[in-house]
Amino acid sequence: MDWRRFAIIALVIVIMFGTVVLIGTSQNTPLVIITSMMATTIAVATPLTLGALSGIYCERAGVVNIGIEGMMLGAAFFGWLAAIYMNTIFHYPAMPSLIVGVIAAVLTGGLFALLHAVLSITFKVDQIIGGTVINILATGITGFLNRQLFFGAGSVFQGHIPNAPGVLPTIRIPWLADIPTVGRIFEQQPIAISAILLVIITHFVLFRTRWGLRTRAVGEHPRAADTVGINVIRMRYMNVIIGGFLAGLGGAYFTLESISSFEANMTNGRGFIALAAMIFGNWTPFGAWTSALVFGAAQALQINLQFFRELIPPQLAILQNSYVVGLAPYLLTMLILTGIIGKTIPPAADGQVYEK
Amino acid sequence: MTENDVVLEAKEITKQFPGVLANDHVSIDLHKGEIHALLGENGAGKTTLMNILYGLYRPDSGQVFVNGKPIVIHSPKDSIQAGIGMVHQHFMLIPVFSVAENIMLGDETTHLGVLDIKAVSQRVRDLSHQYGLEVDPDTKVGQLSVGAQQRVEIVKTLYRNANILILDEPTAVLTPQETEDLFRIMRQLAARGVSIIFITHKLKEVLAVADRITVMRAGHVVGTTKPNETNEPKLASMMVGREVILTVQKQPAKPKDEVLRVEDLSVLDDRDLEVVKGVSFDVHAGEILGIAGVQGNGQTQLAEALTGLRPIKSGKVFISDKDVSGKTPRPIIETGLAHIPEDRQRHGLVLSYTVADNMVLCNYYLKPFAKWGVLQQDKVDENARRLIKDFDVRTPSPYVPTSKLSGGNQQKVIVARELSRPIKLLIASQPTRGLDVGSIEYIHKEIVAMRDRGIGVLLISAELDEIMALSDRIAVMYQGQIMDVIKAGQATKESLGLLMAGIKPSVAAEAAAPKP
After folding, report:
1. Could you write out the DSSP letters of every residue in A26-52?
2. What is the pLDDT of residues A222-268, one digit of tens each?
C-alpha cells in the first residue's frame, strides 16, 4: 500500500473517530469512546469485508462481479427464511435454526453466483449485465416473497410476522476480551470473526497455494493458463461460486447476526461499497479488509454519534440529523472511486470473456 | 539417420476452418537433435499445424506419432505429457508473476499444500545453468526484455521435460543480437538431444540455423530441403509459388528541393522521459532517408511527433517550408503528408470499419466524398473499387471489415489510402513488419516508385536489410540522438551496427587503432 492510500486511510479514521471523541468527551473518556467505535467498526465492516473477498475471488479469476449486492440481499432473505421455518414451523431451538439459516444463506449466495457464472462464462453475456441481472433478480424475488409469505392474505404466516430465532450469540475471545475497557473490541459475533479469519485464509490461498496461483493466472492471462493445461472455464466457475458463498455469508450478517428481521432492500448498497473496498484495497485481501474498516468507521460514526446526540454543539447541528451522517460511507465511496486514491491495477483479464 | 531417430511424425494432417482448408494432408517428421525449419508465408498453415501438435486444435483427420507410437492429443496437457513444448509467437507469460511462478504454473511443486517456490527456483537455476539459458527465477517477468522472456518460455518447456520444442516465429520480436543469442541457444539445445521445430518466414534465418527445411504454401507441404542444397531465391519461390525479386532494384536518386526539415526536435514519451533529444535532419524530394536503429531508441516517438500524434517538447518541423510544429494531424496531412504507421492495426486502420471506409479516413470530409457534410457512399465505393484494383488488395469485397484481412492486405489498404492522395512526403514506419515475402516485395516497390515520382520518403525501420536496400541516405538513431547520416553507398552492415550500438566511427577507429 503506497503512502498516499495510507495517508487517506489514516486521515479518514482520525476524522471519524475524532469527531465522536470530541463530541462525547464530556460524558466518556476518549479510550471508552474509541473502544466503542472500534468494536462497532469491526462489526459493521463484516458484510463489506466478506463482499470484498467475494469480489476478490471472482475478479482475480477474471470475472467482474457487480452482483454481490444482489447475492447478499438474496442470502439475507433466504437465510432468515430458513431460520424462521426451522424455528417456528419445525420447532427447532434458536441455535440450530440460526446455523441452518447461515448455511442456507451461504448456499443462496452460491446459487446466485452459479447463475452469474453460467451467464458470464458459458453464455458470454457481458459481465456487468450479468451482475445487474443478479441485482434486479434478488430485489424482485426477496421483495415479492417477503410480501407474499408474511404480509399477504392466505400467506403461510397469515399476515403475522413470526418470531425470529434472534441473532447469533456474541463470542468472547479468551484473554483478549478480559482486558479492561479495550476488551470490548474482542467481543464479536461469529460471522464478524469468521470474516477476519477468511481475510487471512484468502490471502494464504491466493498467494501461497496452487489454487491461488492458477486463479490469478486465469485472471491475468487465461490463454497462458490454458497452454499449460489449466482448465480456465472450470477455474472461473469455481472461483465465482466460492465468491458467491462468501457473499452469502456476508448476507447472513444482515438478518442472522446484526438484527433478526428482514426489510426490502436492506443491504442498502453495501455490496457496491464492498466492491469499492476491493478496488481501494487493490484486489488484495488485507487491502480490502483495511478499506472495509475505513468504510465501517464511517458507518460507526453514525451509530456512535447517536449516543451523544444531545451533546452535539449547535454549530454542528447538522450532525444531529442521522440521515446526513449516514451519508458518510456513500460519500467516501464516491470520493475513493473518483480516483483520489491514485491508480489501482485490476487483474489484466478482469471482465474479459475467454474464448478458445 | 535411421527410422528410430524420428521423435515426432505428423501424417496426413487435415484441418478445415470455415472457408479455409488450413492444412491439407500435411506430413512432417522430426529427428532427434534436429532443427527443422517450417517455412511459409502468413496463412500457409504453419501455425495451425503446430497448434494441432500442441493440442490447441483437433485435426479433422490424420495422425501424430511420438517416438513411433501413435498418440491422441486432446489438450496441451496431452502434448506436454508426450514431451512436446511450445514457445508461442505471443508469449504465454504473466507479467505480474515472477519467472519461477510463470515456469511452475500448471505443474506446481507444493509442500503440505504450500507452493514450494524455493525448490522451483533451484530447479530453474539448474536448468538455466545446464542449457546456458540465463534467467533469474525471482524477477518479475514484466521487467524482463523480450529476449529474456523468450528464454523463460524455453526454460518453461524444459521444466516440463520437453524434448520436442516448437518455436513459433521466435525471431519476430527480437533484435539482431537477441536473434543471434537465440540461434546459439537453439544449437546448444539440439546438441543436447532436444529436437526443434522452428517456424518462420525469414529466409536468412532458416539458412543460418536449420538442419532441414520444410516449406508450406496454402495448406500444403511444397517440399523439404537442406540449407546446403538451396538458397534464398529458391526458398522464396517455393514459399510464394512464383519468382520473387528479393533485391530492390532502383536507379540512383535525383534529390530535388527539401520537403521535410527537422530542427533540434525534442520529444517526450508517455512517462515524460525525453526520448528524442535535439534531432535535426532533412529529407529532399526524390530521395529516401532511412532511419536505422535498434527499436526503442526514440524512432516511434519521432514518427509520432512528425505526424502530429504526439506533442513536441521543443524544436521545429517544416514540411515544404511550412512550419507544422505542434499542429494536429489534419493540417499536417493537408500539407501533403502520407503516413504508414508502425502499428497498422492500432494506428493505421479502424479495424471494424470496411475496406472502403478505411480508404477515405484522411479525406472523407472533402469533396467528392462529402457534400454538405453528408457522406457520398457511391463516391466512397467507387474510390475503394479503384484502389483495390490498382493496389491489388485481396479482399472479397470493399464492404468487408479490415479486421478480416490478412496482415499484408491490411497494409495494402493503408498504402493505397496514403499513396493515392497528392502527397509530397511519405513517412513509413516499419512498413513491412510481420509481412510475408510477397507483400514485402510489393511494399518496397511502391516506396521506390514514390521516390522516383519525386516524393520525399522518410523510412523508419528496425530491419537493417530493409534500410540498406531502400535508402539513399541513412541516419542512425541511438538513445534519441542521430549518431550520423551516411550515404547509402558508403554504409556497411558493420559500420551501421557500430553506430546502432552508440559507437561513433572516430571513436571506433581510435579503439581499433593499435596503441603506440
Report:
1. TTS-HHHHHHHHHHHHHHHTHHHHHHH
2. 999 999 989 999 999 999 999 999 999 999 999 999 999 999 999 99
- Candidates A204, A209, A228, A232: best to mutate against B (most CBs of B within 10 A) is A228
For chain A, what are the domain ranges? Answer: 3-337
Distance from the A334 Cα atom to the nearest Cα atom in chain B, whole angstroms: 28
Q: What pLDDT was estimated at residue B144?
A: 86
Residue B448 CA from chain centroid, whole number: 21
Convert B5-44 to b/e letters by CB count within 10 Å (16 or more is b).
Answer: ebbbbbeebbbeeeeeebbeebebbbbbbbbbbbbbbbbb
C-alpha cell at B183: 540461434
Q: What are phi and psi of A267, to 5 degrees?
A: -70, -25
Domain A3-337, classified CATH 1.10.3470, yes or no:
yes
Residue among B186, B142, B191 at smallest CA distance from B166: B186
**Alpha carbon of B108: minimum distance to chain A alpha carbons (Å):** 7
> B54: closest CA among B75, B33, B37?
B75
Query: From the CA of B109, how many Å to the nearest CA of chain A?
Result: 8
**What residues have CB less than 8 Å from B114, skipping those under 6 apart?**
A208, A209
The number of C-alpha atoms within 13 Å of B183 and in the hemisphere containing its C-beta is 18
Among B449, B455, B387, which Cα is nearest to B427's?
B455
Q: Report the candidate in A77, A73, A71 with the shortest Cα–Cα distance to residue A116.
A: A71
Question: How many C-beta atoms surround the C-beta of residue A171 within 10 A?
Answer: 14
Q: From the CB of residue A169, how many other CB atoms can be counted at a distance below 10 Å?
A: 12
Q: What is the per-residue pLDDT for B408?
A: 79
What number of CA atoms fall less than 13 Å from residue B101's CA on the CB side?
A: 25
Beta bridge partners of B481: B478
Of the candidates A74, A76, A64, A75, the one whose C-alpha atom is nearest the C-alpha of residue A130 is: A64
pLDDT at B452: 93
Length of chain A: 356
- Please classify residue A204 by burial: count the beta carbons closer than 10 Å to its beta carbon, then call 0-12 exposed, 13-18 middle and 19+ buried: middle
Q: Which of A221, A223, A228 sits opposite B107 (nearest CB)?
A: A228
- C-alpha dist (Å) from residue B75 to A231, B72, B78, B82, B248: 10, 9, 6, 11, 45
pTM score, two decimals? 0.80
Q: How far apart are CA B67 and CA B82, in angstroms?
A: 9
Helix (H), strand (E) at residue B46: helix B46-53
**How far is it, in rounded angstroms, from Cα A192 to Cα A286?**
15
pLDDT of A112-147, one tens digit each? 999 999 999 999 999 999 999 999 999 999 999 988
Helix or strand or coil: residue B55?
A: coil
Residue type, B168: D
Let me know: does B226 contact B213? Beta carbons within 8 Å.
yes
Q: CA gyration radius for chain B?
A: 25
- Report whether pLDDT(B505) > 80: no
The number of angstroms, rounded, from the C-alpha of A208 to the middle of its chain's C-alpha atoms is: 24
Report the complex ipTM: 0.89
Smallest CA–CA distance from B112 into chain A, residue: A209
H-helix segments, B160-257 = 176-191, 203-209, 232-240
For B399, the grid coordinates are 464492404
Q: How many of the other CB atoms lie within 10 Å of CB of A340?
A: 11
Q: Is the dihedral of CA A301, A306, A309, A311 positive or negative?
A: negative
Residue of B nearest to A218 (CA): B94
Q: Which residues of chain A have pLDDT under 70?
A: 1, 152-161, 339-343
The whole-angstrom separation of Cα A188 and Cα A253 is 12
Is the CB of A229 less than 8 angstroms away from the CB of B80?
A: yes
